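ok so i was messing around last nite and threw this chain in just to see what happens. nothing serious, just curious
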Amino acid sequence: MSRSHMGHQARKRFGQNFLHDPNVIRNIVKSIRPKVGDNMVEIGPGLGAITEELLDATEGYLNVVELDRDLIPGLNVKFFNMPGFKVNEADALKFDFASLYEEDRPLRIVGNLPYNISTPLIFHLLSYTGKVKDMHFMLQKEVVQRLAAGPGENNYGRLSIMAQYFCEVQHLFDVGPGAFKPAPKVDSAIVRMVPYATLPHPVKDHRTLENIVRESFSMRRKTLRNNLKNTISSDDLESLGIDPSLRPERLGLAEFARIADFVFEGSNHE
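result:
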């Protein structure tokens, strides 16, 4: 193994915290259940802690997406004898994950995501859900709580709704700071996201739904009537069976989908 790899200093700008606890690694891999023939993709393999386990399970087949070019030689040295190990040197936020998709082999995406890009990266990955079998991520615990939250819960908001539009979301388990080097200041958690074969509440126009949700949560303490006053009237909300005096966190995905379809149809008939 190359000297530079052994002595790699975690870099602040990449938000790097390397996982080293073997029990946590084992639990993560057990949750993923990788097997031979899977089209596995790992985002940000770091020093290869999870990578090694994934390669063992798939008999050497894995795509990794890594931005930090200082880490890449070490990964190539460590896994040089794996027939299907491929490093894609790229920024995951800009990477075209569809390029790794194969007709009968939907993507299984795994990653210990840096906290500073986790939310935009999840939005990027949601655009590929038609080509994805499942996703397992290690994230800041608060982000996992936001992804999995239901209406009325503190962490429920835009991220919850947009993730749950496409995926069934499960908060699997928490991981303490001690599992990493350097130890982060926050707890982490593992989340499983499984894209629906059939969307439970499909909308006519996805961008309209995104806009409605963004506007609704622009000021959490205000009512739907206030936050959506430039988009839909109180009377129209009532006609959809939605109380305009509610705060946005009281509404489920089904209600947001109803509002989005109403607004989209209205904008197309003007």
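not much to say yet. The first strand starts at residue 18 and ends at 19.
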